[in-house]
């Protein structure tokens, strides 16, 4: 309850102050209302979308208008009439904004500008003008058309100018409260403030030069200055720049009603009408420019965000493709390269030899009696044995060598630029270290998991015949199996077979 009373008092006092300003302006323009700011400002300041407390707003407007009219209106019988007109206009705004959800900011987009002018300006101003004109004609005998036209023009301009202005002030206050706690906000705010001050100073100087008694420049130069302010300071300058230009025009016309830069007029009413037309022209042109620019900025922001999203998606896609490619070339069980990776490496031209390079060695490795191991211990233990064997094979590879799993229990090693001693040493090391794993294998005569290794080296200085080299290494592996397994065999260049003694690292010719 206390909060509602505070809000009511705030709205009533604020509207009363704006209404007093409007009445003083009407007195200055010989009783002809040029622009009525109170209704637009109060709704713009306190409009909060669906959360707007329209009931409180309407009652507070009625109270504020009544007090202001009683204090400053010379025609006492007209006090209820003009108070009634303000209340009707706020009620019409309530109905229009609630039903159409039209924006109270005129510079969002061209489509929003049209909805704003239709629903937030023309409809409430027309309804209140007709209501005031009819009541004034019935109760006071005033001309219906004259009263309605005067009310319509002044209130429509007031809503069009001051409704977005009040909304902009409310938004600026909210952004200021949020931004004060952020770093670098002060620098950005000060830069924007400098641009805003300079832009509005240009509008003020051009307007004063236009409406000065000397008529230094033509009136049509005011419009480019307002548009320049929009381009420099932002969309809100369409509202504030038009307000500055119209204020200077009103003051100039009041001081010299029959020799205004806008022309020579027979009556003050026609001079005010011309000022209203000038204000309308500035407002429509600047609003349209600001709405187009705001729409363009929003489109560019969306396009930039979309481009950044596409770049991020492209980066993630490249990472995913790289990961998939790595997975496609890797055996998922042992984490060694797979057959595809082995074959692509073997097909690489860099593995050919010449006179000043070593030999290319190929080693085929097969786990002995592995099917029996799987049948007795299960596939889970079989997978563990394969991983252990793969770790042994991949641990001590020479530089540039590739170890791969090419089948179920079959592995292969490719060693470019390898000497016979290095290749034989690696074969002997693999056989011994697998045996030292001591993985129990009850169906093996050695009682542990062992491997058979076939080794083949290319001839020095001769291009590698890949197919022959692979076939020879495979034949050497099967020779090791036929010799009793748990050993390695190297097939010589002339077809001779070298079989080392079990547990020793030297070759013996057979």
What does this structure look like?
The chain crosses the membrane at residues 52-72, 79-100, 112-138, 150-169, 189-209, 221-251, 271-290. The chain is an alpha+beta fold and 510 residues long. It has three domains: 1-169; 192-316; 339-498, Alpha-Beta Plaits (2-Layer Sandwich), CATH 3.30.70. It has helices at residues 2-28, 38-46, 54-72, 79-100, 110-139, 144-179, 185-211, 222-233, 237-255, 268-328, 339-346, 370-377, 379-395, 420-436, 466-482; strands spanning 359-367, 402-405, 410-418, 451-457, 487-491, 497-498. Strands 2-3-1-4-5-6 form a six-stranded mixed sheet, with helices on both faces. The relative contact order is 0.06. The model is unreliable at 352-356 and 501-510 (pLDDT under 50).
- Work out the count of structural domains: 3
Strand composition percent: 5-15%
Radius of gyration: 46 Å
Regions with pLDDT < 50 over 5+ consecutive residues? 352-356, 501-510
Summarize the structure.
This protein is of the alpha+beta class and 510 residues long. The protein contains 15 helices and six strands. The longest helix has 61 residues, at 268-328.
Features:
Alpha-Beta Plaits, diguanylate cyclase activity, 7% strand, 6 strands, 3 domains
Question: Could you outline the blueprint of secondary structure elements for this entry?
Answer:
Layout: H1 2-28, H2 38-46, H3 54-72, H4 79-100, H5 110-139, H6 144-179, H7 185-211, H8 222-233, H9 237-255, H10 268-328, H11 339-346, E1 359-367, H12 370-377, H13 379-395, E2 402-405, E3 410-418, H14 420-436, E4 451-457, H15 466-482, E5 487-491, E6 497-498
Parallel strand pairs: 4-5
Antiparallel strand pairs: 1-3, 1-4, 2-3, 5-6
Helix pairs in contact: 1-2, 1-3, 2-6, 3-4, 4-5, 5-6, 6-9, 6-10, 7-8, 7-9, 8-9, 8-10, 9-10, 12-13
């Amino acid at each position: 309850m206390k909060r509602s009373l505070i809000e009511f008092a705030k709205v009533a006092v604020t509207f009363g102050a704006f209404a007093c300003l409007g009445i003083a302006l009407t007195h200055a323009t010989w009783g002809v209302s040029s622009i009525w700011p109170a209704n637009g400002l109060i709704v713009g300041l306190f409009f909060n979308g669906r959360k707007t407390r329209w009931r409180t707003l309407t009652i507070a407007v009625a109270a504020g208008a009544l007090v202001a009219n009683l204090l400053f209106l010379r025609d006492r019988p007209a006090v209820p009439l003009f108070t009634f007109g303000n209340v009707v206009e706020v009620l019409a705004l309530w109905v229009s904004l609630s039903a159409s959800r039209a924006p109270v900011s005129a510079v969002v987009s061209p489509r929003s500008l049209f909805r704003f002018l239709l629903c937030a300006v023309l409809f409430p101003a027309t309804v209140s003008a007709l209501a005031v004109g009819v009541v004034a004609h019935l109760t006071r005998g005033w001309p219906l058309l004259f009263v309605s036209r005067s009310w319509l023009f002044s209130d429509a301009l007031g809503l069009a100018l001051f409704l977005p202005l009040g909304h902009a002030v409310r938004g600026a206050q909210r952004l200021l409260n949020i931004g004060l706690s952020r770093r670098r906000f002060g620098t950005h705010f000060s830069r924007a403030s400098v641009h805003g001050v300079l832009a509005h100073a240009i509008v003020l100087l051009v307007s004063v030069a236009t409406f000065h008694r000397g008529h230094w420049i033509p009136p049509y130069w005011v419009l480019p200055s307002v548009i320049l302010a929009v381009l420099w300071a932002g969309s809100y300058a369409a509202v504030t720049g038009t307000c500055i230009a119209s204020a200077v025009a009103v003051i100039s016309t009041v001081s010299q009603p029959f020799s205004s830069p806008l022309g020579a007029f027979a009556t003050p009413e026609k001079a005010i009408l011309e000022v209203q037309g000038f204000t309308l022209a500035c407002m429509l042109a600047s609003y349209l420019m600001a709405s187009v620019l705001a729409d363009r900025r929003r489109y560019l922001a969306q396009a930039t965000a979309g481009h950044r999203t596409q770049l991020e998606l492209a980066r993630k896609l490249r990472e995913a493709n790289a990961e998939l490619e790595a997975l496609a070339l890797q055996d998922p069980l042992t984490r060694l390269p797979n057959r595809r990776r082995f074959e692509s490496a073997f097909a690489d031209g860099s593995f050919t030899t010449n006179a000043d390079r070593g030999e290319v060695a190929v080693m085929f490795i097969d786990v002995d009696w592995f099917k029996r191991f799987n049948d007795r211990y299960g596939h889970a233990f079989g997978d563990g044995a394969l991983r252990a064997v793969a770790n042994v094979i991949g641990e001590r590879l020479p530089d540039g060598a590739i170890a791969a799993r090419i089948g179920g229990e079959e592995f292969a090693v490719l060693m470019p630029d390898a000497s016979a001693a290095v290749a034989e040493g690696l074969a002997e090391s693999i056989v011994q270290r697998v045996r030292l794993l001591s993985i129990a294998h009850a169906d093996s005569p050695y009682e542990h998991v062992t491997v058979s290794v076939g080794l083949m080296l290319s001839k020095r200085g001769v291009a590698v015949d890949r197919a022959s080299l692979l076939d020879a290494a495979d034949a050497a592996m099967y020779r090791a199996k036929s010799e009793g397994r748990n050993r390695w065999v190297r097939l010589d260049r002339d077809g001779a077979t070298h079989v080392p003694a079990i547990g020793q690292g030297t070759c013996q010719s057979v």
